[in-house]
Amino acid sequence: MVVGRNALTQLRRGTLEYCVLALMRTGERYGFDLVRELGDLVTSEGTIYPLLARLRREGLVETTWRESEAGPPRRYYRLTEPGRSALDAFVVDWERFRDSVDAVLLAGRQG
Amino acid sequence: MTVMDPNRLVDDYIAGLARAAQSFPAARREELLADVRSHVAESGATTEAEVRNVLERLGSAEEILAEYEDAPGLPPRAEPRLRFQEYAVLVLLPLGGFLFIVGWLVGLALLWTSDRWRTGEKLLGTSFPPFGYLSFAIAGLLPGQTCGTATDGSGRVTESCTGFALPIWVGVPLFVLLLIAPVVTVAVLASRAAPNRA
After folding, report:
1. Spatial separation of the C-alpha atoms in residues B152 and A14, rounded to whole Å
2. Which residues of chain B make contact with A53, given a CB cutoff of 8 A?
3. Does the model's pTM come out above 0.90?
4. What is the distance in angstroms between the Cα of A76 and the nearest Cα belonging to chain B?
5. For A50-82, what is each residue's pLDDT tens digit?
6. Distance (Å, rounded) from C-alpha A54 to C-alpha B79?
7. Which DSSP category does B89 fall into?
8. Which of these CATH numbers, 3.30.450.40, 1.20.120.920, 3.40.190.10, 1.10.10.10, describes A2-110?
9. Of B28, B59, B72, the CB nearest to A46
10. Using an 8 Å Cβ cutoff, are A74 and A68 in contact?
């Protein structure tokens, strides 16, 4: 269904950056690691990098290149204070949004 | 399918991405290429099939670059603080008076229709001083006081003056004020101007 897929794309687009921020809540992450954890939420995995670059431009994350124990150096991403606030605000908004949608969908199914 | 060297596959992919991102600022392009190279290395893919799979999952260059363009949440392009209208105000308020006063009136109209200044600043622009440097010029051209001495028949010297003069303690400060006021006004207006303040 074309309409449904579009809606999903829109939803993904609006929420993905906050999912990325949420993954950094417990500590710093690198790109490949984030992609692995996001699973189905990222369709073209390469798009995570423009997204991360944007988050950094907006000051929500900061980055450092560091050697990894094995393999090439990694760019690590870490939440900044504004990033943490943005994430907290989104979580509140999201929960309210999710509950409203659920309530309407459920009412539609029962009615 | 012909057998391809996996490294060659990665190089081709990166080269395609670099070509597609040609119009990007160099720093942004290099950053993306480094990220993608690192991603492939992290994946641990070595065989041709594994590398193909990793590249496919990364997506096409178009898909990746599109993420830069229609990205949500990009800050809106900043509006300039001063447009042609505001520059015209900054020129016409001090000097427009010499254009048969009409220039100053046009400046005034532009001042009051601009959204870059608050009412207080507009009042300052209007009244400090009215007609800009024209007031200074007029104050300077006013006929001053002329005094002369006359000796009458009995040898008495009398001094008489015609015209009008401000006491010096009023005249000098007023002159200085009229001289610097337009500069102060222009400086204040230029520094305070910002979109959507009216």
Report:
1. 100
2. 28, 31-32, 68
3. no
4. 11
5. 999 999 999 999 999 888 777 778 899 999 999
6. 21
7. H
8. 1.10.10.10
9. B59
10. yes
